Amino acid sequence: MIRINDIIDKITGYFPEADLDIIDRAYIYSARVHDGQVRLSGEPYLSHPLEVAGILADMKLDVISVASGLLHDVIEDTHATPEEINAMFGDEITHIVSGVTKLSALPFSSSSQARQAESIRKMILAMADDIRVILIKLADRLHNMRTLKFHSEKKRRKIAQETIDIYAPIAARLGIYWIKEELEDTSFMYLQPEEFSKIVSHVNQDKKEGEKYIETVKSFIKKKMDEHNLKCEVLGRYKYFYSIYKKMASQNLEFEEVYDIIAFRIILDTIPQCYEALGLIHSLWKPVAKKFKDYIGVPKLNMYQSLHTTVIGPFGERIELQMRTHEMDKVAKSGIAAHWSYKEGRRFDEKMNKTFPWIQDLVEHQEDFGDPDEFLENVRIDLFSDEVYVFTPRGEIKSLPRGATPVDFAYLIHTEVGNQCTGAKVNGRIVPLQYELKTGDTVEIFTSKKGHPSKDWLNFVKTVKARSRIRQWIKIQEKERSISLGREMCEKAFRKYRLNFNTLLKSEEMDKAVENFGFKNIYDLIASVGYGKITPLQIIRKITPKPEEEKEHESLFNKIVGRVRKKRPSTGVVVKGVDDILIKFGKCCQPVPGDPITGYITRGYGVTVHRKRCVNALKMSPERQIDVEWNVDIKETYPVKIRVRSYDRVGMLADITSNISKNGANIVSANTETRGSKIVDSYFTIAVENTEHLKRVLSAIRKIKHIQEVKRIDA
Ligand code: MN
Questions:
Q1: Cα-Cα-Cα-Cα dihedral of 62, 65, 68, 72, to 10°?
Q2: How high is the pLDDT of residue 131?
Q3: Helix (H) or strand (E) segment spanning residue 262
């Protein structure tokens, strides 16, 4: 078991001036809170954070990383709190340890893992806003894999599968190939024990032959390099087991048929020497076409640099070779981590930390970026990722745009879930529907058969799907309402003319009428009646050219409904969601801009606008109600009736009328009634622009001598 002194030796080995105080304190604290805890192996729990810290020191990371490694399990597994860690070790360590704890708490379910592996990897990378969180998580996983044998068979398989699906690819993206290889080999051993031991025994049987072969090839290379005075180090080694297995499986080969299970590496001092060595190798053995890769000229995004080539060797076999400098070899061993190390005695660099999200696309897309600007742009997009990753209650991962809400999530699951959504829980707590989802949240949606979308949702949803589904629902609702209203209106109107609307519905005449009005089908026609754009009478005229009762009907109608402002292009009222509709005002309550108003769809004559408090409006059926509002851009005057109660004196009427005119209002009509002795009620209908205007007129009248009361009244 590694001891704290070994770790301190490692750190001072690569960074002699390191401030070791924080390492000491982290060690003492970790030992105290983990005291009494035992691992499945029977070792004290402390051995685990020590090993993890040791791996981080092997990667030559800064003291903050190593200290965080010592503390990485204290929040999850002991009574320690983030507040306590913060007080003792500061913001940076608290942030990293909390980040590792959050990753551990993600509710990944093993059944869906392989399918969702890419989403999970992205999610892990998106959640770690400090690269060191990922490095610690990898070190943690590496040590857990080394001690996996103490778990049950079932648990071993689950953890091994997760490691090969999630963590090994992350290590590869970071360019830390030795961690990737060890994680894959260990997982392979637990997941396919038979295949694994077959390959191990093949390699062992092959060892004697193999070692002879390695020496032969090495001596050929050495000789050639010496002839040209190239100082170099030549290494030959077996590829790791899992890569041999993958090669056998993918190309359907037997072990004996896999020739290039041994790879060679030539390490030189300078870059020109690497190219020179490549030329010499190609003159020695015939290169395999298209197998040459120049990662020195075009480094991988994770900083990896080498020349790769494959040649036909001395026995007609394929040989894979890599040429690189010592410096490149160091980077290849620790990957991106090399850039956070103390190799030049520099402290952990903030700027470097900001460049880390390139890891997200490192390996896969590296060939796609030729241009450095384009590359930087892609790094930026990854850094400020526009996506959040959340879980369903069953542990499936869904990705949504940043700022998305539970409503967006509900529509993503299914349109019906969205349409019937009534509430949401995030991480077990009820949240408002406009809650902004965060990566790692588990989201649960409540639905009800009676639930339905609200127009307000359009103010906060972020996905196109949610937006279009909500709009669609509203449209269908409005159309359904218009159709049922239109049908009712038609039935009644047709009855008046002794016609049966429902019988005529499927008649040729009706088809013609539909075509004539320019509609696709009868429902669109009926809906437009409901909207008030077409009157049932217009339809009747199309079907029966001369209906007899027409005139009588119209006059009767006008008596009931009131003044129709047909001629005017705009009435100053907007019906929400409907353009081009006939508007008229209730005679009963005479709405004026500024009054709260409501609209009622009237039979065949568009929408009648009433004041909200109007008794007639209150009596009308709510399903005919439609939202309307004043259009403030329209300058127009509106009639309103007022009553002025005053003493009956000479000149009173003249005083009142002149005050009305002085305030810019026209008098439309006037009359007076005497009430008892000396009291007179004068009634005026005046034209005003809005309620403000009316108020001004009324208060001007109130100032006249001997006025008792002035008020607006219903017509
Ligand atoms: Mn751990």
A1: -150
A2: 77
A3: strand 262-268
Asked if residue 568 is part of any domain, the answer here is no
Q: 143, 162, 191: which is the final residue of a domain? A: 191
CA of 103 to the centre of ligand 1 (A): 11
CATH number for position 693: 3.30.70.260
For residues 184 and 199, membership in a common domain is answered with no
pLDDT at 242: 92
Give the pLDDT confidence score for residue 157 in this predicted structure. 92
Token pair for 535 = 């009157």
d(CA 20, ligand 1 centre) in Å: 22
CA of 135 from ligand 1 middle (Å) equals 12
**How many Cβ atoms from other residues are within 10 Å of residue 492's Cβ?**
13
How many domains, in total, are found in the chain? 6
For residue 370, is it within any domain? no
Dig out the tokens for 146 from the structure: 């080394």
Residue 635 has pLDDT above 70, yes or no: yes
Work out the angle between the directed axes of helices 522-530 and 508-517 (0-180°, nearest 10): 60
HSE-CB at 122 with a 13 A cutoff on CA atoms is 20
CB half-sphere exposure, 447, CA atoms < 13 A: 15
The single residue listed with the structure tokens 């050639």 is 224
pLDDT at 360 over 50: no
Q: Name the residues annotated as catalytic.
A: 76-77
Q: What is the largest CA-CA distance in the chain?
A: 136
Check the CA dihedral 598-602-604-609 and report its sign.
negative
Q: Do 83 and 28 lie in a common domain?
A: yes
Q: In this structure, are strands 429-431 and 421-426 parallel, antiparallel, or unpaired?
A: antiparallel
For residue 200, the Cα-to-chain-centroid distance in whole angstroms is 46
Spacing, Cα 102 to ligand 1 middle (Å): 12
* Residue 342, helix vs strand vs coil: coil
Q: How far apart are the first and last CA of the chain?
A: 97
User: Separation of 48 CA from ligand 1 center, angstroms?
Assistant: 7
State the Cα–Cα distance between residues 266 and 236, nearest whole angstrom.
9
Say how many Å lie between the CA of residue 26 and the centre of ligand 1: 15
Which tens digits make up the pLDDT trace of 38-89? 988 889 999 999 999 999 998 888 889 999 999 999 998 899 999 999 999 9
Residue 11 domain boundaries: 4-191
* Predicted local confidence at residue 379, as pLDDT: 37
- Mean of all residue pLDDT scores within the chain: 82
Task: Let me know whether 15 and 132 are in one domain.
Answer: yes
> Which of these, 36, 39, 92, lies nearest to 63 by C-alpha position?
92
Ligand 1 centroid distance, CA of 409 (Å): 33
